[in-house]
Protein 1
Amino acid sequence: MTPFIAALAIEQVFRAQALPIELAVEDAGANIALPPVKRIEIDSGALVEQLARAGAPMARIFDFLKETLSAPAFGGSSPRNHRFLLTVLAGISRQDGFIEILGVSEYGGLLVQGWSAHLRAGTIEVEIVTDRFEVQNLAVATFERADLLNTAKGIIGYSKDASVGTLATVRAIHFRSGDEYLRLDVVNAQAIYLDNAASVAQLKDMLPKLEGPPPVLQALKRVVRPRFPGHETVSTFAEPVRIACDVALHLDGHGIFVSGWLLDPGQRMWLALLKSTANFYARLHPIWARLPRPDVSQGFEADPQMAPLMASTDHRHGFLAFVPRTTPMAANEKFYLELVTKDEACAFLPITFAEDEPSLIVRSLLAGVSLDDPNLERIISQHLGPTVSALADRRAAPETPCAPIGFGHSRPQPQLSVIMPVPAAYRDIDVNFACLATDPDFRAAELILLAAASGISAAALKAQAAFYGLSGKLVIAADGMDTFEAMDLGARYAEGELLLFLSAAVFPRAPGWLSRLTAELARMACPGLVSPTLMYEDESIRFAGQPLDAGAAPLASSARLAGYPADWLSERAPVAVAAAAPECCLVRRSLFQELNGFSRALVGPALKGLDFSLKVRGHGRACTWVPDIRLYALDDDSEPGEPDYWLRGGQMVDRWAFERQWCAPAAIGSLLD
């Protein structure tokens, strides 16, 4: 015969006397029918007495009930379950000592002091009894007391997660010791209740006397550390440690970025923390990236406290770190850096979040990191990637410094808007005008030109447009806009139902190609983007669709058959592809607006076209390549070849962000390709 205890959830408990009850035992081959229930005890105290008389293992039974009744099927943490468990616990536990002092720390939790015969130092699960039942971990340290027998010791315990509202409601703390439950009762009228300051003072006074495992003693030391006073204390810190914060950013919904420098030539620092007055806490030192800062070394080379400890070859004083945090900031929440030395001394540095224009911050962050740093992969994936992508996405939509300048005859409600960015050094716009003017497909189209104010003459443009009979708008783009930012700006001023994004470096082989491209978009079951074949001027292939392979990661450089002779093209009918050609693609304006245009989370232009194609496909629309419509796409020599230093870093961040969103995890080194 095997004794057992079981819990049965039924809506009407008294029906258990009338219902047959069977146990389904694994590997038994058949259910076991239980005899009829003769008596149902409503008083849980009587149930405990019966089990105890039968010699049942009461500690094991309580643990089973505690775990089982916490399940939703049994009511979870309902008041009824709490009352039942409290009654059982009171009936099985044996008094083992008393709690004489109770307090709370500044950050909440429960601090207790008293004595016990069996409670040992360490972290132990306890049941805290107030007017309810709460299971928590208690960090316990012990100390010698002359007024106790040799078998008992004084104890101090701290539970940081205990949610005790009023100290006076605490009645007892129960804990398991071996095969039984023991309890420490509060000494009722003689108990001492301490507020935050008094609790910290009491624990600080007791610390030298306490014994216990190092993690427990460290946890208790944390309770008594100095608190953030609301101002910096680094400048007056006695230890040879200094810290400064150069940039702090709060990226709402993403996290917090901090960068600066820490000078610790004597290796005194134990913890570097990012904290807030609303109990936010993050350890920086395990995750931050350290950077060379020789300027910091130079600044302290004559300091009498620092200089003797500094190594002439060690300049990695800089740091940057991104800390994830998705919750919004609380009202009046203040953030600060906290340094803790190995002897528990603390220094504090308040930080203020920068509110500059995101584009300026992005440029500054990327310019401040060495592209030759051996840890660049980690710096981008863990810190700069999340930070710069979140910042870039916050950038304002492209704006024009002045109202669009109309040219030609106004065409009310055009069906098509041709959006053409004009590079700053481009001088052959008349060739583009001639190609458009001689093609009947463009007679009713609206032409939107995007150009920097320093790169085009509005008067000359009007004269040329009048000569060729073209109509549209000149939108002045801010200096430094990339092609996709310019096209995004142009789309905001477009009036046509269809948008044709057309590079100034794309030229037709013959007229009539636009009407064929428009017809293909109209025929598509799920219209998204449609592009023609693009050829180099030597008749080799520049764009013939990207392979639509679900098992492969899309890449900006994976254009099919690029560089091959045109004779290699065997397709004639339109083909679904992974991405369209941003140099020449047709899309409905409503879809472009629905997808919020080209990405602003990417820093540079290299991946924005592919990213938009993938957004279109992710929206359930198709990208189509029409093989037998062929245009020339010449190399654009008007744009500078080598990007600025900060933009080279931005390209690496973009690759990380792109792969995180659209691809499998990047292989080591792929960011540096």
Protein 2
Amino acid sequence: MATILVVEDNRTILENTSELLEMEGYSVITATNGKEGYSKVLKFLPDLIVSDIWMPEMDGFELLKTLGTHADLKNIPLIFFSARSEKKDIKKGIDMGAYDFIVKPSDLSDLLVSIKNCLQSRKLT
């Protein structure tokens, strides 16, 4: 099964999201900010990243931008899972190359559908 990195600074959301993904059979790696997330990407090369945007040290936009500068990392899909709900933020994320943008609070089933669709399109389910 696929390995998913969840990058989220809210511990409750991080734990709930991780538990749900593990119950679905995914291997889950966690990070509490973009800088730590980037370090874990380098170490584990996950199949998919689920990231918040507003985080200390490095936000989700900067994480995606940084990944895009590396040939080995730029093809790892990233789904934003964020409370930022303005159209300009969603557009920015998609324009930067995010696979999807799920607005919190959201039923986690929306996130699961996006993850499954992304991994199926990459044949990783």
Protein 3
Amino acid sequence: MSIWLVGLGVAAAVGVLAVVTRDENFRIDRSVRIKSKAGTIFAVLRDFRQFEHWSPWEKHDPQMQKTFEGETGATGSYYHWSGNKQVGEGTMTLLDSQENEGVDLRLEFYRPFASQATVRWSVAPAGDGSQVVTWTMKGKHPNLMAKAAAPMVNSMLGKNFDEGLARLKAHCEKSA
């Protein structure tokens, strides 16, 4: 019995050590190829009002409250949402955009937990008339609990990004 307890204690210590030493930085990248002009895709990416057409989270709360401020595509414009526990509350602020190349955002979550990250949606020619769109999110885990949950959260967000990019592809190819 005592060998089991020692083994359990060692396993717990190794688990805690793994979490404590885990890098506090995270990065999630997903890409998709879209048969559309860069300008068409870029226009969708920089317009927060079009996010509802391809966001993987909109379906989780059709009653979500949304606020848009600033000129479409302008630095400092933002999209604020507040919804149920699945979508929480947060703000996306446009930091910079490069015509037909990419959009840089600051993402702030207020609930269900506070965190901040940067997001980049980039558009690059694929050489066959289509474009490769990449969704990247970078940030720091705000605490040990977030570091412990990182593998699960990264996997879940990666799936959300894949779904969002598939929806973006369908939306942009329909518009092409």
